[in-house]
Amino acid sequence: MTDSTPHRSAEENGTGVAWFRHHLLDELIPRWWEAARTPNGLFRPHLDRQWRVVSDAPVTLVSQTRLIYNFAAAYRHSGTTRYLEAAAQGADALLGFFRAPVSGGWRWSVYLDGTPADEHLSLYGHAFVIFGLSHAASVTGDDRYRQAALDTAGYVLRAFKDEHGGFIPTLDASGRDLGHTRTQNPIMHLFEGLLALGCRPQQQASYQDAAAVGDWVLNTLFRSDGLLPELYTHDWQELPEAAGGRVDIGHQFEWAYLLSRAVELGVWSGSAADHVLAQGERLLESALKLGYDRAQGGVWSPATPTGRVLSHTKGWWEQCEGARALLHYSRIRQRYDLVPLFRQTIRLCRQRLVDTEYGGWYLRVDPEGTIPNSDKGNVWKVDYHVVGLCEEALRLLDVQN
Q1: pTM, two decimal places
Q2: pLDDT (0 to 100) of residue 3
Q3: For 170-222, how does the pLDDT look when each residue is reduced to its tens digit (9 = 90+)?
Q4: What 3 state SS string does the chain have?
């Protein structure tokens, strides 16, 4: 075995499967289990560095569904009953408290007692309903979760679709377009949710929907330089820098991973699969060229539409998505040249982003190396990105060759 393979000395240098398993099941999920649960199944996301609740602010659709996924993933890899119960309780709370007055829709947030807080309809949130409930169904076998995920996918593909073939990011409580700037980000997560839904044999039709979403993104939004911009006008023209346009480098890695994973799952085949893989490779290479720190390791974000990095801060989620894509392509696409970059990124995470005293991850590291914010949780940061990285590492590194 040579240095070019992902296996050599992985355990010795701290990037092998043992670390990911330990980190997920011994260091991360137990803390979320202790800190986030409530008697009614809603999850508290606002936690300080020591995992103490710092706010009774509302629970959002995204924080609830991401934590459902976290507990489902932990059960999948441990068989520990308490995580299965937490995933089910969280899914039941989702079904019980988040249903919107609009048939098929889900309100954005609720208070911790379950009363409605914000009734607007978010494509981002609906995408994670599909994702979270699909994972809950996969570990519990409860058909209520599967059906709710299916119904939500159907609702999204009807209610959020715009006249250009893209998707509206935000609707009001009655289902009308709020006029917000178009963005690729929730569409990426819709694609991810449809992949999770389609993984169940009887739901393969969801792969057809995923393919349609992916094809639209690649044909409409993908730039000739191999980058996928973040923000657009209502007719899906890229916003310039002066209007707030940007390229989120972490999302380039995330899309590259999702496209390759979709081909692996059979969403595309034949020449269509070859085309999608080529686009995924271009995204990966463009992201590495624009936003990867080869000297110190890690991913920067964001950049201007013209390719100037705006901040050399390294956020927790960008490192997770970068590392997951690098590992995936090194293993599944035999890109062994990416192994050193994967190892370099994981070392950066372990040395600078993982809190060795209290557990969990810091939000980011600035260019001087200090940690500006040490909160362990908020409505966006509930470690779904970390769990996704660990799941892919357990899937790919736990194979003896």
Answers
A1: 0.96
A2: 41
A3: 999 999 999 999 999 999 999 999 999 998 766 679 999 999 999 999 999 99
A4: CCCCCCCCCCCCCCCCHHHHHHHHHHHHHHHHHHHHECCCCCECCCECCCCCECCCCCEEHHHHHHHHHHHHHHHHHHCCHHHHHHHHHHHHHHHHHCECCCCCCECCEECCCCCEEECCEEHHHHHHHHHHHHHHHHHHCCHHHHHHHHHHHHHHHHHCECCCCCECCEECCCCCECCCCEECHHHHHHHHHHHHHHCCHHHCHHHHHHHHHHHHHHHHCCCCCCCCCCEECCCCCECCHHHCCCECHHHHHHHHHHHHHHHHHCCCCHHHHHHHHHHHHHHHHHHHHHHECCCCCCECCCECCCCCECCCCEEHHHHHHHHHHHHHHHHHCCCHHHHHHHHHHHHHHHHHHECCCCCCECCEECCCCCCCCCCCECCCCCCHHHHHHHHHHHHHHCCCC
